[in-house]
Amino acid sequence: MRNILIIARRDLRAQFNSPVAYVVIGGAMLLLGVLFFLVPRMGGGFFMGSFWEVDRASMDQLFEYLPPLMCLFVIPAVTMRSLAAEKGSGTLELLITMPVRDSEVILGKYLAACAMVLVLLLATMLYPIAMFKWPWHLGALDWGPVWSGYLGCALFSCAAVAIGMMLSSLTESDVVAFFMTAGVLLVLYIVGFMVSIVPAAWADAIGFVSFLTRYHSFARGLIDTRAVVYFLSVTTVCLLVSFRSLESRKWS
Amino acid sequence: MSNDVMIVAKDLTKNFGSFRALDKINFEVGRGEIVGFLGPNGAGKSTTMRILTCFISPTEGSARVNGHDVFDDPLQVRESLGYLPQRAPLYLEMSVVEYLRFAADLRHLDPETFRRRATSVVEVCGLAQVLGQEIRYLSHGYRQRVGLAQALIHDPPILILDEPTSDLDPNEKAEFLDYLKQIGRERTVMLSTHNLAEVEASCARAIIISRGRIVADGPLDEIRAKSGRVRYVVSVQEAPGSAPYRGRGVPPKKGDVEDGLGKVAGVKRLAALPTDERAHAFELVSEQDTDLRPEVFKLVVDRGWVLLELHRDAQTLEDVFRSLTIGDERRNRRLGAAEQDQEEADEEDSDEGDGEDQGQPRVAAPGGGTAAKAQGS
Hints:
The structure holds 2 protein chains of 2 kinds. Chain A is mostly helical. In chain A, 77% of the residues lie in helices and 0% in strands. The longest helix of chain A is centred in the N-terminal third of the chain and has 30 residues, at 60-89. In chain B, 40% of the residues lie in helices and 26% in strands. A 6-stranded mixed beta sheet of chain B has the order 6-7-8-3-9-10, with helices on both faces. Chain B has a 4-stranded antiparallel beta sheet with strand order 2-1-4-5. A 4-stranded antiparallel beta sheet of chain B has the order 12-13-11-14. In chain B, a hairpin with a 2-residue loop joins strand 4 and strand 5. In chain B, 41% of the residues are buried. The interface between A and B is medium-sized, with 24 and 30 residues.
């Protein structure tokens, strides 16, 4: 346990000592701001319309735009370095030959990546607080869906970070890891849009794996235990695969 | 060998796919020994070290470090050794002191011990001026020192250093080897290198490995004696320059000299050495118990050449190394087709071709008909 925290702390510090953390968080916040306040409704509802346009006391835009931003940009950028870059540069060899277990390395790195993403989630809490608590009062916000939305976002991110870790553990190049993670997460997210187009039998299957369908109930204020279990299972499985993949260096 | 055995490798074998990187390696290293682990590139030095540090597992065989099996107790094994991988891969965004603290944390040193150990390793590795600097701004030499410092931070009984001196300048190298001798008194040190001078300077014992097999293991003197060959250098005047030519007739052509020397009894190998246009110089190798000098002298006198130089060299470790590793490649090649399946044998053959080109630059003399004959005899 202690080793996990030491590794996590080092990783987190490395992220914040390099421009990566600031670029990722700053860039994500900037994009989110543009999407939230400026981008009008267009593309047949693909962009749901800006906060002012919709003119309702809700955080729907936040929970609509945050997951795709995470998938495409934040999580790939955070996880690409955690294993792929270390394998590429050889620093992993020095880390693993310290008296630490492989599982501690994986968990430590996972924890650090999750913490990074949670920092971003916390930063987005400025939106509801600034607009509905202090300094502005734009209306009576229903806080229930906001909390459940954040819970959904957090679970969604944990699962997505685990997927990123897994893909990062499979390659030695951080660029490859970035694009693989972004691609896989994007697919897992947007297949949700296909539920309404494909035949019913397919729709069930797609709805089952889609992050979007799982996540949407949270955004509407519903804490669905099936979704909780789903996200936690994805996390567990992906971490196990990363662990095995790290271990496989011994046998290759 | 001491009874206090710190590292034991028993029939270590490692296959990477169909490539056999290590082939039944056996060795023991005792407490207080500094062992040079020598071999050409790709011989399996790093693979062995990675097995000993539990980074990878052997395909067959076993190894024990400080009494712990690398397979069953990897954590205890790693606790008792300090390891510097090739090229010292460090976290570039950390400062030197942060890195050392990180290493100490993972080794569970308490802050008091860390302060004490850090003071000593920083002094020993000469890191005092760069402590606060980020590792990315350090030269390779300094990075290597940081790597060494992290390997020493917990005062391990065993040090495994993979090419620790590759990025150091000559002064740093000398300093490092001195230091190694110092710490090696109570520790077991295993360092890999392909620089033989370093081994001669710091190690009492060497293990020479070639193509995944140990070809020599023992005290340096024993290894030096092992090849049992002596090297001679002969130069014969080629052009008189301004002074009158003192020989009979005209100065000899290079081919004549080469032919003549090749026929001297007892010559095992003949190679041309680079010279200016005033002389033909050759390197001869013979068995230890024959002395070629009288024969060479007689040949020169009979032909009426002018002898500029004739001397005998004691065998250097470098020569032994070359003859051992090259000879071993030959043996492998012959056994290869019989022992292994055809695919593997093919692969090995092509590999060996490369190895020989690099390993034997001077043996292949120009106009090498005679040279080849001499070599074969």
